[in-house]
Amino acid sequence: MGWPAIARRARSVRPRANLVEAIERLRLDFPMCGRAKLGPLVREQGFAVSDATVGRIIAQLVARRAVQPVLTLRRRPYARRSGPRNAASPSVCRAT
């Protein structure tokens, strides 16, 4: 007897080095693009890879500071409500 084949399979698979280099090159060329836009460009180059895998590789590149994270331009904390407990009470909003 022995271990079943499922128990011996690799739990985590490292992406190919040439795929990581291709994604890094594309990200440096298009620094504001994320996984949804870089995924089709990577597939045009002949790699069979999903957008989720591209996103994981981009996250690894950002973590090791090989590429810059995308700037969030639409974040406006002053234009958001914090929740129902921070909303003005009805007595304050009543016209007198």
- Count of distinct strands: 0
Number of helices: 5
**Amino- and carboxy-terminal Cα gap:** 85 Å
| Beta-strand content | under 5%
Global mean pLDDT: 80
State the helical fraction.
40-55%
Q: Which residues form runs of ≥5 with pLDDT under 50?
A: none
Structural class by sheet pairing and helices: mainly alpha
What Rg is obtained from the alpha carbons, in whole angstroms?
A: 23 Å
Sequence of secondary-structure elements: HHHHH
* Gross geometry: extended
Report the major sheet: none
Structural overview:
The protein is an all-alpha fold and 96 residues long. The chain has helices at residues 5-8, 17-29, 35-44, 51-63, 90-93. The chain has a domain at 14-63. The model has no long low-confidence stretch (mean pLDDT 80).
Q: In short, what is this structure?
A:
With 96 residues, this protein is mostly helical. It has five helices and no strands.
Descriptive tags:
mainly alpha; extended; 96 residues; 46% helix
Task: Show the helix and strand layout.
Layout (H helix, E strand, L loop, with lengths): L4 H4 L8 H13 L5 H10 L6 H13 L26 H4 L3
